[in-house]
Amino acid sequence: ATATSAPGAGSIGTAQLADLNVTSGKIANDAVTLAKMASGTDGNIISYDASGNPVAVATGNDGQVLTSAGAGAPPVFETPASASMSPAFEAYLSATQVIGDNAVTKIAFNTEVYDTNNAFASNRFTVPSGQGGTYKFYTTLNFDDNQNAQKIGYRQLYFYKNGSSYAFFYNDNGTAKAISSNFGSGQITMVLNATDYVEVYASIGQTDDNSPSIGGYNSGKRYSVFGGYKILI
């Protein structure tokens, strides 16, 4: 004869349980509390590794953010990239540049004020590798036709993209007598790719002077400038 009996309530201890033999099916849902979890490091975050096993993400530093490391790796704390409107540059014409009557001429902005990515050279801005996007450009030119005659002179400035005219700005005195010096300015927004380049050209025409020019730096003043920066969108 065989007899069976149930253990008495509260009579089973850990010694009667085989090691590593309690399955998840023996644990009720929502039964594991924070107090039952193993101690860890302050600030650590529980994640999973490439094998799907639990892993603690190491605590970051103040100001860092949690970023994805992509598939197959736990996230990590990293210092966020600083938000800056770069690449950015500004340069100015350091001396008067004669451009000739009715001649569309590239302006030689030969002195840099700043150039965050070393992208301005040979009087042009070139978009660095990996920096394609939307850019804002501006320029101010000091047109000087050196004339006192009655003939009216026009002033034109251009933004060139990759060697071709992209935007055109026109300024006419509109008076019976041309003014000897006049400022013209323009701003433009361009969507550019890496290796695209931008330049500024100018023209003075219908004057009584055969050597109109663009005025440059004088007495601590920058009369003709060209600059730009990438827009954060």
| Sheet/helix structural class | mainly beta
In total, how many beta strands?
17
* Arithmetic mean pLDDT: 84
Instruction: State the separation between the terminal residues, measured CA to CA.
Output: 85 Å
**What portion of residues is helical?**
under 10%
Tell me the number of helical segments per DSSP (H or I, 4 or more residues long).
Answer: 0
Beta-strand content: 35-45%
- Poorly predicted runs: 174-180
Largest sheet properties: 7 strands, antiparallel
Radius of gyration: 36 Å
Q: Give the ordered list of helices and strands.
A: EEEEEEEEEEEEEEEEE
Choose one word for the global shape: rod-shaped
Structure description:
The protein has strands at residues 45-48, 54-57, 65-67, 76-78, 88-92, 97-98, 105-106, 111-115, 120-121, 124-126, 133-144, 154-161, 164-172, 181-192, 197-205, 213-215, 225-230. The protein is mainly β. It is rod-shaped and about 130 Å long. A hairpin with an 8-residue loop joins strand 3 and strand 4. It starts with 44 loop residues before the first strand and ends with a strand. The strands form 4 sheets. Strands 5, 6, 8, 11, 14, 16 and 17 form a 7-stranded antiparallel sheet that branches. Strands 7, 9, 10, 12, 13 and 15 form a 6-stranded antiparallel sheet that branches. Strands 1-2 form a two-stranded antiparallel ribbon. It is built from no helices and 17 strands. Mean pLDDT is 84; it is low at 174-180.
